[in-house]
Amino acid sequence: MFSFDQILAITFTLFAVIDIVGSIPVLISLKEKLGHIDSGKATIASGFLMVLFLLVGEPFLNLLSVDVHSFAVAGSIVIFVIGLEMILGVEFFKSEKDTKTGSLIPIAFPLIAGSGTLTTIMSLKANYEETNILAGILLNLVIIYVVLRSLSWIERMLGKAGLMVVRKFFGVILLAIAVKIFKTNLNM
Predict the structure, then answer these.
(1) Predicted TM-score (pTM) of this structure
(2) Cα separation, 74 vs 119, whole angstroms
(3) Cα–Cα distance between 30 and 93 in angstroms, integer?
(4) DSSP string across 127-187
(5) What is the pLDDT of residues 146-156, one digit of tens each?
(6) Is the separation of the CB atoms in 136 and 7 below 8 Å?
(7) Where does residue 46 rank: exposed (0-12), middle (13-18), buried (19+ CB within 10 A)?
(8) Alpha helix segments (H runs only) across 64-114
(9) DSSP letter at 110?
(10) Count of other CB atoms within 10 angstroms of residue 175
(11) pLDDT tens digit sequence for 19-71
(12) pLDDT per residue as tens digits for the range 66-122
């Protein structure tokens, strides 16, 4: 049964964890490197991963003998490397000739549907109905698509100097988030 209150709580929770607005500098940097981000494919792939983890996430990880905390630590390492790229201007993720792949990795996973998002989705199942979680995921996918489609406009608004400042700042933020995810899940 749909509950507006549940959908609202789930939507805001996922919005905060996904942090698509905070990821704008990373996405612009990846767009420059890849030449193009396929907004539709990245959104669909992210949505697929989120729904898949909602339905079979924990059993799948158990099948692979991987616990949720190990999954989160692995995702935090990838996020850490992306943050280093932003701050140091060094390229760790090499550009693929196939930009279709670049829209999926590292954009759909781990930036949008990363370990934090997927773990959050699995934990939401303890308190909310699956139909409401699906609605919250769908609303976030709409926001993700709009942000991805608007990257060129956002880039023009910031300008080169503004983009560089924002990229360095959010690189540090991304490093801090990665360290927090790593530390939190390493203690478990």
Answers:
(1) 0.74
(2) 12
(3) 9
(4) TS-HHHHHHHHHHHHHHHHHHHHTHHHHHHHHHHHHHHHHHHHHHHHHHHHHHHHHHHHH-
(5) 999 999 998 89
(6) yes
(7) buried
(8) 68-88, 99-102
(9) I
(10) 18
(11) 887 788 889 888 888 888 999 999 999 999 999 999 998 888 889 998 878 87
(12) 887 887 787 778 778 877 887 887 777 655 555 556 667 788 888 899 877 888 888
> At which residue do the structure tokens 């999954």 appear?
71
Closest by alpha carbon to 185, among 77, 33, 35, 104?
77
Handedness of CA 18, 53, 136, 46 (dihedral sign): positive
Contact 152, 37 (CB under 8 A): no
Domains in the chain: boundaries? 4-186
Composition of the chain by helix, strand, coil, percent to 5: 80, 0, 20
The structure tokens 């503004």 sit at 162
d(CA 80, CA 72): 12
Calpha distance 160→16 (Å, rounded): 27
Compute CA 49 distance to the chain's CA centroid, rounded to the nearest angstrom.
11
Q: Quickly tell me which residue has 């630590």 as its tokens.
A: 73
Q: Residues 137, 57: contact at Cβ < 8 Å?
A: no
